[in-house]
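RETRY 2/3 - previous attempt timed out on the joint model. Re-submitting the same 942-residue input unchanged.
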Amino acid sequence: MRTFLLRRLLLAVVVLFGVSVFTFLAARVVPADAAAKWVGPKATAAQIARARIYLGLNDPLPVQYLRYLSGLVRGDWGESVVTHQPVLGDIKAYLPPSLELLVLSSLLAMAVGIPLGILSARYQDRIPDQLSRLVAITGVSVPSFWLALLLQLLFFQKLKLLPVGGRLDSVFRLAHSVPVMTGSYVLDGLLAGDWALVGSALKHLILPAVTLAAYPIGLVTRMVRSSMTEVLGEDHIRAARAMGIPNRTILGRYALKPAMGPTATVLALSMAYSLSGTFLIEAVFAWPGLGRYAAGALIAADYPAIMGVTVLVAIAYVVLNLIVDLVHAWLDPRISLR
Amino acid sequence: MPEPLLSIEQLTVTFRTEHGPVQVVDIEQLTVGRNEVVGLVGESGCGKSSVALSILGLHPAHAARVGGRVVLEGRNLVGLSERELQKIRGSKVAMIFQDPATAFNPVFTVGEQLMRVIRTHKGGTQRQARARALELLELVGMPDPAGVSCRYPHQLSGGQRQRIMIAVALSCGPDLLIADEPTTALDVTIEAQILDLLKQLQRQFGMGVLLITHDLGVVARTCDRVAVMYAGRVVEEAPVADLFRRPAHPYSRGLLGSLPRRGQELRPIGGTVPDLRHLPPGCRFAPRCPLAVPTCTTHDPKLIDFGSGRSAACPVVHAEEVGVRD
Amino acid sequence: MKRLLKNPLSLAGLVIVVILLLAALLAPVLAPFPDHALGGVNPVARFHPPDGTYWMGTDDLGRDIFSRVLYGARISVWTGVLAIGLALVLGVPLGAVAGTFGGAVDELIMRITDIFLSFPPLLLAIAIGAMLGPSLSNTMIAIALAWWPWYTRLIRGEATSVRERPFVEAARAAGVRPLVIVFRHILPNTIAPVIVQASMDFGSVVLTLASLSFLGLGAQVPTPEWGLMINTGRTYFVNAPWYVTYPGLAIFLTVLGFNLLGDGLREVLDPKGVKRSA
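RETRY 2/3 succeeded.
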């Protein structure tokens, strides 16, 4: 067990090292002239030269890389060429709203995907299976930015049920003092017992969360289906039936628990996907999160900001994978033998 | 003759396949009495495991169709609802499997699995189930029952797992135990231990046992009576000693002849097992049978009762030949 | 094939894919206003709602959206094929080399794929796309760079099993040069599953392409690219909802068609499980 974890940790370190090389090259080396970008289009040659020195662009590449790497470790992720603010500070400010979105959409994905997957496996190749496969494949096929627009059109424009854009009603925000604790308005509202805040925040969360959940719903459904189908074909399931274990228990415990390992993997995967998925939809929902920040940085070609977000997602991905390995080992006692 | 514990009558099992329906079992009659161990012998693929599954209604409905009657204590199990079958499985009829490595769920401890079966059928509290589980583990000869119950299946040896599987099977005091190749996956030394354990517990509990195996050695060691299966059919039934002394059906003779014995030459049966999709007309063994006469390939033989518990589905052999006088 | 088409979902997928390919092929014939897709404008009919003339309405420059969507099919199919092709050209030889030779080469190539695989494909494509600068061909390269490690992994796995086979051993014993072994003996025997996987990936690639264009990284105006059309149309979606609806529907149906077909294919080839999820 310990060697298993050590191996995984070592691999994670190697991967993160590689990620830093990649983002270093992407942020500092490949852009034709990072210094010109830094000082803006109207700068003189002398200004550009000064910027080159300031940014250390005249140093040999390994020196530049080591400086970049030590910066990453120390929390100096560079400065945005647009706002000239530290990238890490920007990320810290923009992350909480995105996390709120991410957590809710992942919960949605589990709440919908796991039962659908079980249904699919239970009635393999019959009508419920076909329907849930259709739902799952639709989920992974629908362009999220388009779904975002359609949902707004339907629930805001036509039905006038849900608000559009932002995290709170603007009137509410003016009339209400919003406590700042966790960065999630829903959590803050719950902690402060402020139900009006919770309500307004949730109403604004629904559409973006549903949009973001479409893809992971598809992934989770398909993964639960395929791993359950595999488990259901194994001998021990027939043995359990021969022992008179009720079907409900077999599906809900005997087959589900072994199938949860792969499902946890896919869920972690899809959380990382969703983090990049926010790039596509936060702008549509005027959601002041990391995705909108990143999309803005893309349009402005703000390389330090883009690579900062990239590093963050890669770290999140690696950490999620480590957590998944732990969950795996906890769910399946055989793992530690590998 | 007293009513048998289990009586299988005109049982057919038909699989739906891509090439159309294939009948894998077609049994006229097979019984298991109380306190009796009946062996069901045949080569792999002859349908013997299918018989076991159809007794418990374990064939998936969309893949197989079961016809005929499986009567347990006067009650026909074929066509019972899933809910009613669930009550019978594990409590009145229990089953142990060929490979104990795959028959346990890998992600729960064996104790959890044993206790769940107990609580499913007997109810009671967790504490009661635990006490009963430890009792059972001790009964099947596991040292340190409390420690063993906390183990996962992969942490135990094959023999240990099979012992625990027997504990699971016995947990609710079944009337009938179906053992499907219970020792095939085990070492020879362990095999003997498990068979002795089975036999001892069978006597202790007064169960009927249907022991399915391809191994005549296992039959000789454990069974009272034996039914020989060939290509989905029972071709001979006899008390164990009689079968070994004077087998009636040419296939049984072939089987015994292919058994290694001191001072005797091995005589394997010529030819191969017929494809169930394209069965020969008449007797299914006729193409491989050294005694076949022309009518064998045209007439489908029925089981002929020779008396003294012996019968065979072969018109060529006679009662005198098998040592039974009318 | 018969089993594939017996499933109604797979059949639906196939029908969608065939329609898409026909639309891409016949766009110049089918489009009522081909010049609207090729740079022409039509200021007299701005934001014309869908009717008999403009089946899907017109956009902010009065261009027929139906014609542009048809031409968009060409762009999506063509760039998708090129992106996957490029990913294969990159990934397949590397995987074959890694799997055939093993050792340090294998280790190095696999760790590089690890690094690439530690990004979600969409993010990686976005980051590379941003690095290369916005254009349709750069998007294509970005997607290829994000996708190749999957194929490297797959082919490596196949190659490690093939290299033990007698005909490879024989070639090695006969002194055939290592690279010749890779290309003559290993590749032809490992390529089939990769081709299948690549065709199943087509849906995700089309979706990623559209996403990058939506973010402004891919095609540039006035290219009738679906994602770009939605990006432009987004500003007007309250008053001209058709502007975003139809290009989006085109993306959705295209990706859906390929994914339905791919899922059916996977089910037929590997009924036990999904090898990878995206």
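Residues 247-326 of chain B form one domain. Closing ticket.
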